[in-house]
Design brief:
The chain is α/β, with parallel strands linked by helices. It has 19 helices and 13 strands. The protein starts with 18 loop residues before the first strand and ends with a helix.
Length: 401
């Protein structure tokens, strides 16, 4: 008897049938809701008449931003002026059929719009309402404005990172927004947990996600070091190791990898050397060990060094650009990139970094134009063509062309 393998075309997406109202902007919230869209949810992005700010983030091709597209692929676009009572009425009607709402306004904004959780749960007791903010929804810092670089500094992350940069006293500049992406992932996980809980309780709930706490969760060692007296760390364990033509990263994180490194470097005697034989002694004499490693690695090209390390089973990598990493055959093998289309053409985005044997996971194939689905959802909310035209300022037929 032959057992057929999974037919990817017939797999069911995990969140198919769920509806999401996405009031979020910039990165953290949109990253979360794109994850929901990738898992099959219908995500309705609520945008202002001017469009979300990321629509102008370069690279822009023919007035379309691929960064915006990367964060919002697979979503629908509904334009509403939330200062308008009619817009609030439309939202309230859509909430009745919504499973999840995500917002990352400063705490208090949704309450002033009468779109807060306590108000909307009266319309839909099963609503899962996720608020993402810099410091949390309540407390002395709750209403402080926050973006990822501010949170990196506030969480101690930048100073923790600086401690691993020998000879430097000025914190790094910020260009990679860890706090946004990490917080978006935590929000996604919390929403998934709330959906599971709702199966039994039949009730929704309010999820309050803090960027500050999300970033603090990255500083695993430092959270403990801040509570107890420990010896100051010496030379960082992980850093660039020089070769004849560049640098490699070597991770000697276990006894086995240390022994393999000693063998690869041609120094099996290090294994029994009292300076290096035990972890604590090795840590105390880390400078001497790495000086010995670099005396060997500098005689080899990066390619030769990595070949020797890989033969010995030592975790290592060249320092690559993002473009080089994306060109790795492993990325192609995993199907890690998806092609997305918008009004400016096509571009590639990352799929979610996990695969499931029983669910199809892929980025949506299109990034919506501003307001592309406004008429559809306004009609669902009960507005006539004349009401839609009066509200938008254009005939419905013109918008549907």
């Amino acid at each position: 008897m032959t057992v057929a393998g999974n037919d990817e075309g017939n797999l069911t997406q995990s969140f198919t049938g769920l509806r999401v109202l996405d009031f979020s902007t910039t990165i953290a919230g949109p990253h979360c809701t794109r994850m929901l869209a990738d898992m099959g949810a219908e995500v309705i992005k609520i945008e202002s008449v001017e469009g979300e700010t990321m629509r102008s983030r370069p690279p822009v091709r023919h007035h379309f931003s691929s960064v915006f597209g990367q964060l919002n692929a697979g979503k629908k676009s509904l334009v509403l002026d939330l200062k308008s009572p009619k817009a609030i009425e439309i939202v309230r009607k859509l909430v009745a059929s919504t499973d999840i709402l995500v917002e990352n306004f400063r705490p208090g904004v949704m309450r002033r719009l009468k779109l807060d959780y306590d108000t909307l749960r009266q319309l839909n007791p099963g609503l899962i309402y996720c608020s993402i903010s810099g410091y949390g929804q309540t407390g002395p810092s709750a209403e402080l404005p926050a973006y990822a670089p501010v949170i990196h500094a506030a969480a101690g992350y930048d100073m923790a990172h600086l401690a691993y940069q020998p000879g430097r006293s000025r914190p790094d500049y910020c260009g990679v927004y860890h706090a946004d992406v990490l917080t978006g992932v935590y929000a996604f996980g919390a929403i998934a947990a709330a959906l599971y809980q709702r199966q039994g309780s039949r009730s929704g709930q309010h999820i309050d996600v803090s960027m500050l706490e999300s970033m603090l969760s990255l500083t695993l060692n430092e959270v403990q070091w801040s509570q107890f007296e420990v010896s100051p760390p010496g030379r960082p364990l992980f850093g660039p190791v020089e070769t004849a033509d560049g640098y490699v990263m070597i991770a000697t994180a276990s006894e086995k990898t240390f022994q393999n490194l000693a063998a690869a470097a041609g120094h099996p005697e290090w294994i029994d050397d009292p300076r290096f034989a035990k972890y604590n002694d090795r840590r105390t004499n880390w400078d001497a060990l790495m000086d010995g490693v670099e005396a060997w690695s500098r005689t080899l090209s990066t390619e030769q060094c990595l070949a020797a390390l890989n033969r010995s089973g030592v975790p290592s990598s060249p320092y690559r650009t993002v473009a080089e990493a994306l060109a790795d055959p492993q990325i192609a093998h995993r199907g890690a990139l998806a092609e997305v289309e918008d009004g400016g053409g096509t571009f590639k985005v990352m799929n979610l970094p996990f695969r499931m044997s029983g669910a199809q996971i892929s980025a949506g194939r299109r990034a919506a134009t501003l307001g592309e689905h406004s008429v559809t959802y306004m009609k669902e909310a009960g507005l006539s063509d004349d009401e839609i035209a009066a509200f938008i300022g254009k005939p419905v037929m013109a918008l549907q062309r």
